[in-house]
Amino acid sequence: MQMHSLAFDISHTLAGGLVLISFMMLYQDRLYSLLNVFALHAVVLALSVAWQAYIQDAPHLYITAVIALVFKAIVIPVALHRIVKQLGIHRDIESAVSIGLTMLAGMALVALSMVLMLRVTADADPLAREDLAFALSVVLLGLLVMVTRRNAVSQVVGFMSLENGLVLAATGAKGMPLVVEISVAFSILIAFIVIGIFLFRIRERFDSVDVSALDDYRGERR
Amino acid sequence: MSSVVLQISCVAGLLGIAVLAIILSRAKTSTTIIYCATTAVSLVALFGSIRFLVGEAPNPSGLVLPVGLPWLGAHFRLDALASFFLVVVNLGGASASLYGLGYGHHDPAPHRVLPFFPAFLAGMNLVVLADDAFSYLLCWEFMSLASWALVMAHHRESGNAKAGYVYLVMASFGTLALLLAFGLLAGPTGDYGFAAIRAARHTPYVATLVLILMLLGAGSKAGLVPLHVWLPLAHPAAPSHVSALMSGVMTKVAIYGFIRVIFDLLGQPIWPASVVVLFLGGITAVMGILYALMEKDLKRLLAYSTIENIGVIFASLGLALAFQANGQKLAAALAFTAALFHVLNHSFFKSLLFFGAGAVLTATGERDMDKLGGLIHRMPFTSFVVLVGCVAISALPPFNGFVSEWLMFQAVLQSPELPQWALKIMVPAVGALLALAAALAAACFVKAFGVTFLGRPRSTAAETAHEVDRYSLSAMIILAALCLLAGILPGLVIDALAPITIDILGGRMPIQANEPWLSIAPIAESRSSYNGLLVMIFITLSASLSVFVIHRFASHAVRRGPAWGCGFSDPTPAAQYSAGSFAQPIRRVFGTLVFRARDHVDMPAPGDVRPARFRIELHDLVWEGIYLPIVGAVGFSSDRLNRLQFLTIRRYLSLVFATLVTLLLVLAIWS
């Protein structure tokens, strides 16, 4: 009983930490620091998945954890670092929506997902319940990052953190086949490659990765 | 071979013919081959369904084909009701194919008609046979699409593209309504088989919604006012034998759908339902025939007259609902039989009249009645059979139209026995509307026949017209003979319809075969009876006698004198009584209210030599009051929504995000 409670507390902490790091992402206005926070996000996700693998006694989840660690915590942040450096935008400061407002919106979203998930899954396993609620918060916060940023690189980071929320939800639910997780991981990798190529194409053409350049190109007023 | 298998094989044959038509599309003989084949297959299906209907105790037989959704299959079933509508469909199909054997040779683009014609027939057969909602809707859409392709056969003629578009929009709307209706019927269990729907109990709330949706769905296909707007556009746009099928048969398939759902699947009706159906039926009948009276295009006139007949049929069905809701089985069976009898009759004479209009079109190239006239001398056979059709549709004895309308009025006369005061008052009022519609229909067809076939030719095309080919004529003659036969032997038809009323309503009309001298007595002989044969003998004898008397006793001397020219000596043919002038009194009486009709006379001042001008202003209030505002609203909102095409990426993301959050909020608040 004691063990179960401890397992619950640890996974709760890790998932909560993921939400907290999502909040941290909201107020990073430098690209490098944003990437660092994202790497941290992925590390916590890997820990959380590994913990789930341990308490659910599901060894295949270790593979998921390793994938998360290798790709999301190391490969993708490093690659994005290099892209930012090559593009020469590491000094850019973003200011689409004010930080205070974004934080408030984020809190509202977390509250919403808590209320919703705890009510909808009233008769589910408490571990899965908390997990799902946190996962939904992470997804919504990732979307918020995408919406409040102008820079294409930070939109990519928002997308990746959203995906982390999905992985969290998937591992929290028992019996999710490994194939699904691996294919999700690979689709993210491919999306990253495609987006990376597009970043350079956009840059070549418009001298900027600020997506508002695209809108200017289309002759739109904002 | 069981009956349902025979019917399905016929459908498969028709689909095969459609494929064959695509292969043969450019061959010269394709018209003959395809129409011969469809005639043969339709005849087989026709005799199969007649044998099923009048054979002893028609037992429903079902068939499940492993096509369609993998776990569901396609269910088909043949029962008495379906077999009756199969008779209507295949009789229409066979006669239209026979007519097409001659008419099809005048078609400028046969390859645009031939593949879709058998497909259309197959679609209508399948709708009637379908026994689960999924196959029903699929076949319904197949039928609609095939008929749409036929409407668009001559797509370069002016107005046809618009007709096709309006038809497509209304057909999609109707199918949406049907989809929702079947969704409601299937309920949360989601069993779409008709057997399961029939077995389930439906709450009054669901039943009311289903009734409304069926009125919208089946009504838009059948042509209930105000959903009729596509019908006078699309029916005339198709080649004439297809117009006959669309008007005479496809509208009946829609009525089949209505009967199947409302009478069969929903179970015991509630009486307020009948009020709605009665009201819509009465309004449709009067509006349809008033539209027809204002029309001078022959085929459009016929299409509007179809709307009137649909109104009559729906009013009879409403009566049947009213009696059934009160458990008066005999009266319900009477009204229901009247409706089915009228379905059969209308398919006879409306096909016949559309064939006649097609013959006139072939001979003169004109649909405008004001450019026709005097065709009785040039096309005597066509004129005669069209006259038969006009008399039958005007509900004059001894033809079939009279019998079904007479039966319907017998049912109206049963209304004092209804317990609800609303119905006691409503039914006679609707009866009065129907009587008005019947009288106006007679006026309308006097106009249609008189202006087209009598008088002097108003154009050179009408002057040089020739009789049409034998195939077209034989199709028309067969239908005219059927009109007469059903008129003088109504007892046979009523007895053949009895299994259906027993199936659907659980009651039947008295057996008519025992009545002496082929008369029919709907309730009891002491109340009322009708004998078509005696009426015909009397009409024949008295007419022959008066002709004999006139020729025997009147002067034989032929006198030549100046014809009375209505004040115009040596009038041009254009100065004859025209379609517009014939309808003028009725336009004055009803048109000022219903169409806001105004006559504008532009009389030049004395001494001015320019011609005087007379112009009639008519407004289609249904189109202007309902459809144009909807079109305007759709246009306005799409103009506004057009901006959504040109948002920034972030705005799109924000829209997705906002939608997601809103949906989650809704869930959070209402779950």
UniProtKB/TrEMBL annotation, chain A:
The keyword Transmembrane applies. The keyword Transmembrane helix applies. InterPro entries: HyfE-like. Its main location: membrane. This is Hydrogenase-4 component E. The chain crosses the membrane at residues 6-27, 34-55, 61-84, 96-120, 132-149, 156-173, 179-200. One of its GO terms (cellular component) is plasma membrane. Keywords: Cell membrane, Membrane, Transmembrane, Transmembrane helix. It is found in: Cell membrane. PANTHER family: HYDROGENASE-4 COMPONENT E (PTHR38601). It is a multi-pass membrane protein.
TrEMBL record, chain B:
One of its GO terms (biological process) is ATP synthesis coupled electron transport. The chain crosses the membrane at residues 6-25, 32-54, 80-101, 113-129, 135-153, 165-185, 205-230, 242-263, 269-294, 301-323, 343-363, 375-396, 425-450, 471-493, 530-550, 652-670. InterPro entries: ComplexI-like_HydComp, NADH_UbQ_OxRdtase, ND/Mrp_TM. The keyword Oxidoreductase applies. Keywords: Cell membrane, Membrane, Oxidoreductase, Transmembrane, Transmembrane helix. GO terms for molecular function: NADH dehydrogenase (ubiquinone) activity; oxidoreductase activity. The keyword Membrane applies. Residues 130-415 form the NADH:quinone oxidoreductase/Mrp antiporter transmembrane domain. Pfam families: Proton_antipo_M (PF00361). Its main location: membrane. It is a multi-pass membrane protein. One of its GO terms (cellular component) is plasma membrane. PANTHER family: FORMATE HYDROGENLYASE SUBUNIT 3-RELATED, HYDROGENASE-4 COMPONENT F. This is Hydrogenase 4 subunit B.
